[in-house]
Structures are given as C-alpha cells and as structure tokens.
C-alpha cells in the first residue's frame, strides 16, 4: 500500500493528469469532429469535452483585464491566443480629444524649438543672428499658452509647466497670461531661450502631456475589454496565436506616451475585426455571467502522444485499484487481528473461570 501511495503521489505531482484523463475518456466515448464557419452554426452544435473543433471566421482578439502586469503578450494589450466570436458590430477604434490636445501641444513646441527650414514669421537676418548666438526663438508663444490651457484646464494640472510659461511671459499669474493670449496681446511676441532653458521647457511639456496620454490609453484599453455579451471566447490553452499577423517589432510599453497611443490605434484597427482560424480538441467549456461561452482548445495529439496519455491514465487507474485493494486487505487484517485477540482472551477466561467439581469419595 505504501508503494502504491508513493508512486501515485509522484505521478500526481510531476505529471499533469487533467488533459490525459479528459482525452482518454473522450477517446473511449468516441469523440466527434466539428467544423464551423459561422457563429449560428456553432450555437446550434452540441459540444462535448474531447470533441475536435475547427472554427474559422472574423473575430476580435481577447483583451485581458489587467494589461499592466509583467506578462507581455505578442500583440499587447491584445492576446490573440483568444478570440471573441459573435454577431455584434466590431468595437470602434479608440479615440480621445484629450490626447489630440496633448499631441497638438507637443507638436507646436517641437516645431518652435526645432524649426525645419526658414520661418516666414521671423526676419531672416534676425533668425541668422539668433542662430549664431546659440539662442532658440519661440516665435508663437501665445499658441503654446493657449494649447497648454486647453489641455491643462484644471487649477492643479501641469503646475510646473504653467509656472515656467508665466516666467517666460513676464506675467503675474497663469490666468493673467491666458487672458493676454486670448485677447491677442501676446500675438507677435517672441521669446528667446538658452539651450538649457529650451531643453527644460521641452521636458516639462513631455512630462505634462505624458500623464494625460497614459491615463487615456489605460481607459481606452479598459474599454476594449468590454465586448458585447453572448457569443464565444475561443482560446488556445497552449497560448498559440489564432491570427496570421506578424508580431510587432517593439512591445507596446517600450514606446513613449504618444507612440503608445498611436500603436494602440494601429493594433485596434488590425485586431478588433480580424480573420482567425482555431482548431483543436475541446478541453473545457464554461459560460460566464455575460452569457459568453468559453471554449478552450488543445492541439490534436499525434499517435505517440495519445498513446502516452492512455498509458498515463491506465497507470493511474491501476494504482488506484491497487490502493483500494491494499486498503481493503489492510482493514480486514486489522479487524481480524482485533477479533483474534478477543477470541484468545475469551478462551483463557473460560479456562480459568470454570468451577472446580469435588472428587468423589473413595473407599
């Protein structure tokens, strides 16, 4: 019995038995092969664990609930080893007015700090003199102020950037600087910056805009994780990709803030409604609270692997039979030993407790 327990414990610890048992039972029951190309056909089809399923159509790559964890998928934030398949209209691509305002602010600052070619608003002789002096000219300071106000409308938003612009604009406070920009007082005002001050301003703009962009990107990703109810979620329990798209050369979170947003939009346009092909043996079927049926697939094993699965299941069955038999024999032996001791004790009690009869009188 100890040997059976030891072998079974080692088998349970070191060998995954869930899949071999499912496939072995399905093989013994006679699994069926199903092939579908529409959601309606799959809804009408009786599915069992162990059946072979081949599905092909247009679906949406799965978006995990937590995309900020350490696990990185091939198409992060999309995990294309899972496909939502239903008849609902595809989700719209993510859009954000906040990010467009942030991108506009970054663009105008970059354009003024790093001009390409000559600027028609600046006298060529003045531009040449400024360039020789090593200074940098902001030729549309009012535009930077107005776009900062459009993005950072709250009193506690972009405090450091606002303070820097107030100092550059020689204003008492931010509200006064904004009023001057809105009234046109700052129109035509040029601001000269040293290279160090220009780098500081550029970094302040990047820091201020990045916080807005990261937040909007996270909200957009969460919105993608809200597919319509019903339908199916077909997943590969081996993590195999169900779509035929080349993997991105750079992971999403290695991009800067605005680049992350653009990459998210590109991936959304590609993966929110994409062709997929899934085939394998059904290893699990569940239904969530939204009425979506989750179907887990595993690649069809070859003859050798299937034989190994059957052998593993048979070995487990033999060990269970041996354990039950040895346990039964052990219990019978314990009961028999206990009964034997009781019988011996009763025998000797009867021997010593018998009344003595007196011997007859002899003459």
Automatic annotation (TrEMBL):
What transmembrane ranges does the database entry give? Answer: 309-331
Q: Which GO terms describe its cellular component?
A: plasma membrane
Tell whether Cell inner membrane is among the UniProt keywords.
yes
Question: Subcellular location, in the record's words?
Answer: Cell inner membrane
Q: Is Ligase there in the keyword field?
A: no
Keyword list (alphabetical) reads: Cell inner membrane, Cell membrane, Membrane, Transmembrane, Transmembrane helix
Q: How does it sit in the membrane?
A: Multi-pass membrane protein
Q: Which domain of life is it from?
A: Bacteria
Q: Which Pfam families match?
A: IgaA (PF07095)
Q: Which family does it belong to?
A: Belongs to the IgaA family.
What name is this protein filed under?
Igaa: a membrane protein that prevents overactivation of the Rcs regulatory system
- Source organism per entry reads Yersinia enterocolitica subsp. palearctica serotype O:3 (strain DSM 13030 / CIP 106945 / Y11)
